[in-house]
Structures are given as C-alpha cells and as structure tokens.
Amino acid sequence: MKSWVQSHLNVGLIVGVLFVVLTYLLVWQQAATTGGTRVVTTVAQWLVDKQLSEGEGSSEKVVTNGAQQIVDKQLIQAPSETEAVTTKVMCSTEERLSDYCELDGDVRIRGRAWSVDVVPPSWSSERRAWKIRPYSRRSATHVDTLNVTQLQGPGGAPACTVTYSKPAIIFALGGYSGNVFHDHADVLLPLFYLSRQYGREVQLLVINRVQPWWLGKYRLALRAMSRYDVVNLDGDTHVRCFRRVTVGLRLHKDFGIVPERVPGVRLAMPDFTRFLREAYGLPRGAAANPAREPRRRPRLMLIQRQPHRRFLNEREIVRAAEEAGFEVAVTELRIDAAVDEQAPLVNSFDAILGLHGAGMTNEVFLPPGGVLIQVVPLGKLDLMARVEYGEPATEMGLKYLCYNITVQESSLLETLGPDDPAITDPDSVHRRGWAALYDIYLTKQDVRLDIARFSLTLAEAMDHLRRQ
Predict the structure, then answer these.
(1) What angle, 0 to 180 degrees and rounded to 10, lies between the N-to-C axes of helices 451-467 and 314-323?
(2) Does domain 299-467 sit in CATH 3.40.50?
(3) Taking the mean position of all CA atoms in its chain, how far away is CA 340?
(4) How far apart, in whole angstroms, are the C-alpha atoms of residue 355 and residue 377?
(5) What pathway is this protein a component of (predicted)?
C-alpha cells in the first residue's frame, strides 16, 4: 500500500511540474509575440530598448553574456519567429569571368571557418556545396575560398550571434587588386552596380588578409555605397546571419556595365563616373569648350611613367600640345597617392595623354565630354588597350583617341635590333605567355613620338572639344 501511494505522489509531482513549465512557456511566448517585438532573448531586447530610450551616449552594439548575441540598433535585428523564410540558392561557376552565389533565406556566415551556410526551414534530402572565391575574376590567384553550403536541415546549424536586417555582399581583395585599374574594374565598379539596388542599406563584408590599406584608400567610395562600416571576416568569431547574401562580385565585362544585367535598377558607365564625382566631391561635370570660351585653353594632363614605358621626347610633345591650343601639365601619378587628392587634380583637366597602362584608369575622374589619348606601344597591344581603356572611355561619355606607334617610334628598335622576333613577329612573343609579353613590351620599351604624325591626333582632340 505504501509503494502504491508513493508512486501516485511521484506521478502527481511530475504532472504539476510539467504544468507549471508549460504555463510559463505559453505566457512568455504570448508576451513576445503580442507585443509586436522581435526577440533575440528577453534580456537582449530589454538592453536594446533601454539604450534606444537613453539616446546619446548609448553603445551601438549590445552583447548578452549568456548567448553572446549582438544587436546593432541601426542594422541588426532578430527575425520574428512567425516570419516566413523562403530559401533560394543560385550559384554560378560557369560564366566567363566570375563565380558568385545569390542566397536568400536563413544565411549564416562564419568568417573564421570561411563558410557560408544556408539553413532550410525544414529537412530535405539534398545537401549542396560550392567553393567560391569572392573575387570578381576567376583567373585571380591568392584569393581565399569560401565554402557555400545548402544544409539538409536546421539541425546542427551554428547558432546566430549577430542577426542583421539588411542584405549583405561578400567580396575579396587580393588577386589583382592593388593595381588602380583592377581596383576600379574588379572591385569598385561591380560593387557599385550590385549595391545600388539597396540605396546604401547594405552591409559589405570583406575577405582581406593581404591589403589592409585598401579599405582606407577607397573609404569615400565605399562609404557612398553603404551607410555601414565594412566588416572584415578574417578571423571573425561571430556567426553573422542575414536574409539575403551575395557571395562574390559579378563582372559584366573587363571594365564596363551591361545595363540589362544590373539587378534592380538600370545603370550605365556615366552613372558610375557620376557616382565617383559625387563621392569625391569633384566639381566639374563638363569639359571645357573653347568655341564657347575662347579665352580658356583646355587643359591636358600628360602622364609620364617611371621608370619604364616613358615618353623620351617629353618636351617636344608638350610644345606640340601647346601649339594645338592646350595648356599642358606633366605629372607622375604615384601609386600610393591618396585618391581624394588625386581625383580632384584629374578632374581639373579636360584631356589625358598617356602610354598604355594603369594610369589610364584616371579617365573615370575626367569631366564628361573630355578626351582620353592612349598611346599604344609596339607589340600588338591594341586589342588589350581598347578593351581595358578605350571602350570604357567611350561608354563614360569621353572621346577616345588611340595612337598606335610605329616601329621607328619604339626604343626596342635600337635595343633589340630590326631583326629581333619582338620587332618582326610579335605573335611569337605572345605565344610565350604574359610574362614574356610584359617583360619585353611593357617593361623594356620606351617611346619617342613622331611629332608630325602625333600632331594630327592632338588636332582631332581639340576639334572634339570645340564641337561638343
């Protein structure tokens, strides 16, 4: 009899405890949902509410000691438990230039693990995985790889420590970045047309173990793309959760925009150059017109490279440009120059003259209607010169003039001799690969322009400025 009574008492005690726990959970859930509050934890939400009510002096981020969950009152919030999550995963590794993923749903990023997980709301038999280097050119090396995985179900997924309300774009530095052409063509331009659809309400995340100076150099352009500081994922210990993430940057072509492929908004290259003028506060939105302002001589910037690919008769070139009607300034644009100092300098000119190379990228700062004169060295480099700088210049609204030098204008004729294959058969150098091409035609070659021949190009540039 005693054991029977004892067993009934134990059962009653268990039922009572379960009833109390169930009642607590129901009351807690109702308080969380009926108040219209998005809950991370009750403590975290209370801290955020407290900070928002305190106003100035409050911290931008809050960390709860227990769950180590962070809430950013501008950018970060927890999703409602009743909010429907639609999972959509699209990864491409077959386009000509770029690999990338477009992810919608419950996306969790672990920087230290180089992983991006898409967590489905329910179990599925399918698990898919991709290795994505989030640099815009697949050919680039020395870029870290992210493991993008669509999990089979929510079980085992890492718990969020930071939950964002805004979409995210993950990009990488390294590869070819650090060269001013690739900084713009590979990073800034695709970031521009990818982020524009969000109106600066987007979080940029970067993988950058090799160029810590890069974000500072282009800080004004990056700030014009996003209201929020760039998050460095290198060694990041948080699990950052988003509803939409783009992994990697998608190039339309080597340096340009295909308007029909821009997500959410129609853009073209004039929009990019206008964006840069606004980001750097550049005052000039139109080149000089000597027909309307006869007392004002259009300004021409002659970019003199060092130590190779130089103009050997610089003074004669300057004199010829002045005789054509230009005010000329010779400059050596330094690689380490601050962009917010260099951009206004370039914008003060109406034309740029230079030998093929990264310095031609400064065309992005010229006022619309200006002129880019690119001198192409010997070596069958005209296609590369046109694709990298000529076509973009035209799409930006500039007048592009290409001057292909003759054998007599190349220093290689003297240093190698007229019978060297580099002179007689440039294709043979191309077949030896990029290293040989770069060494011979872009490192060991200087140029002495035929002034009589080149004067025709200067006259064409001036004629354009008069007629625009």
Answers:
(1) 40
(2) yes
(3) 17
(4) 7
(5) Glycan metabolism
Residue 367 CA to residue 120 CA, distance in Å, equals 49
- How are beta strands 203-207 and 231-232 bridged, if at all? parallel
The residues with which 311 forms a beta bridge, in sequence order, are 447
pLDDT of residue 28: 37
Yes or no: say if 371 and 401 are a contact pair by the CB < 8 Å rule. Answer: yes
H or E segment and range at residue 382: helix 382-385
10-residue stretch averages of pLDDT, the chain, 468 residues long: 45 48 42 34 31 32 36 46 74 91 97 94 85 93 91 88 97 94 97 96 93 95 97 95 97 95 94 98 96 93 92 98 98 85 97 96 98 98 97 98 98 97 97 96 97 98 96
Longest dimension (CA), the chain: 122
Sorted by where each begins, the domain ranges of the chain are 88-267, 299-467
Which of 369, 321, 401 has its CA nearest to residue 465?
A: 369
Q: Tell me the C-alpha distance between 16 and 11, whole Å.
A: 9
Virtual torsion, Cα 203, 204, 209, 211, nearest 10 deg: -140
| Bridge partners, 301 (sequence order) | 329, 352
**Distance between CA 160 and CA 242 in Å, rounded?**
10
Instruction: Round to whole Å and give the CA distance between 193 and 264.
Output: 9
